[in-house]
């Protein structure tokens, strides 16, 4: 059973986002970004109470802006998904999870070292340029269940 319900259009949308956000970090980096996308669809807490589909996650607006920089700027996000990214997205949707993004709900690419917290959330690890953060213990149990 997949981690979250999805259609072919969700695979394509997620694959485009993974490519836009982490193409330079290879397949592994794109899989980590995919973890965060699926985790947000599963999480029933914090900023993600009403986010249940891949479309909801990708186009979520927080603080007046889209949550993902690639959608805000539109620069790479609107490139088509290639078969490689589609396979990776399907892996995430079906089952793939791995540290440091296994339970992460956030990531970003700082200009320096990864800070120990980001908006009060603990750092879980880094892959190439991306720093990953999961919710503070006890604040979002649903992300650990899915």
Spell out the key features of this protein.
146 residues, alpha+beta, four-stranded antiparallel sheet, two-stranded antiparallel ribbon, 6 helices, 40% helix, globular
Overall description:
The protein has a four-stranded antiparallel sheet, covered by helices on one side. A hairpin with a 2-residue loop joins strand 4 and strand 5. It has 146 residues and is an alpha+beta fold. The protein is globular and about 35 Å long. Helices cover 40% and strands 14% of the residues. It has helices at 8-22, 26-42, 54-58, 69-73, 83-94, 142-145; strands spanning 61-62, 65-66, 106-108, 117-118, 121-127, 130-133.
Quick recap:
This protein has 6 helices and 6 strands; from the N terminus they run H-H-H-E-E-H-H-E-E-E-E-H. The protein is of the alpha+beta class.
